[in-house]
Amino acid sequence: MLVRFNIALSYEIINFLKKHSDFFELSEKVRAEKLETAQIAKPIKNYLATATEAEFMADLKGLISFSTGNNNQDLSANGLAYGIAIFWVNNFAGKLDSLAVDFYMLSQKEQEAHAEKLLKSESLLGETLKEIVVTLTAQELMSQISEFARKVKETPYILVQSPREVDHDLKQAIREQLREEYGELAFPVFQINRNLIGGMRIFTDGKVVDNSWLSRINYISSLT
Amino acid sequence: MGGIGKLGIDLYAILIYMVNTGLIIGVLTYLLYKPVLRVLDKRKKHISDQIGEAELIKSEFEKKLKEMQLAKEEAAAELQAKLDEMNRYVTETRRKMTEEMEAEREAMLKKAATEIDARKESLIKEVEGELLKLISKIVLHIVHNRVPENVIEESVKDAWKTYKS
Lengths: 224, 165
What we know:
Order of helices and strands of chain A: HHHHHHHHEHEEEH
Strand order of the largest sheet of chain A: 2-1-3-4
Low-confidence stretches of chain B: none
Number of strands of chain A: 4
Oligomer: heterodimer
Strand content of chain A: 5-15%
Low-confidence stretches of chain A: none
Distance between the termini of chain A: 51 Å
Shape of chain B: rod-shaped
Structural class of chain B: mainly alpha
Strand content of chain B: under 5%
Largest sheet of chain A: 4 strands, mixed
Distance between the termini of chain B: 192 Å
Number of domains of chain A: 2
Order of helices and strands of chain B: HHH
Structural class of chain A: alpha+beta
Largest interface: A-B, 25 and 25 residues
Mean pLDDT of chain B: 85
Shape of chain A: globular
Number of helices of chain B: 3
């Protein structure tokens, strides 16, 4: 599903470049000014402001190759893909976390209304994002973002389990902390596990930090 | 000759008779008596030899008998000694075997006691484990269903603080 976003983004960028055919000949400062009007996410704007034409072409080619099904495409040196990953991990994750807890219980119309409020953009990118939010479950979306981010840069798979939905502020705090620990593209996937009863459990590439009530009860039970 | 002749005795005839008798005796002695005597002597000697031989055999036999008796006694003594030795060996072996069996019995009893203790211990642990599982289930059930939402939310925040520290 994220592939559709990549294609929409490519379309937006190409449209933008059509309007500014001398874009790559401009200085970084001028480029940044021109990009201000573009309806593209900030990390991608930052990338476009600094990339050379050759780099951009190579990165776009790589991204399109990946988006059209070539899963072996190496994205580790792809600046454009990195910008997209930063967008997902930093910018979009914040919006995703701010969705109401019962968002996925709502009817499709209600979900669309919520998505409309959350993502106000009318651009193709905005529409694609809305569609993604409504079509995928939070779990699917987070898994796909995590997978894409790890494709761009080797980062551990982080799973945060809690007995109830973690509130928006705490999610942001967790994301920031884990980004500090594991790199800019670290993207924790939040999962509800009611069996934990209380507390939290964090899996990082198979290693677990278990501060759940379940583990405490099990620990106390094992003391004989 | 007068009186004797009157009695009808002829001295001459007597003489002849006597000569005849003497001749007969001589002839008989020579032809019969002596061979008979010789035969008798021979026989006597033979018998005497036989008796001697029998005596010899008897004495030999007695000697042999004595030897055999002696040998028998020796064999009996030896047998007795062997029997005694065998008895001692059997007694000793029985004693050793009894001791070994006793030791083995003790060891088996100890082992059985240890196994029983271990089994008892394991049973106690099993029961304890089952009990703890049950308690866990009860606690989990209570905690799962009775803890207020705000307490759970706080617990998540606390867990995050713990992680950060």
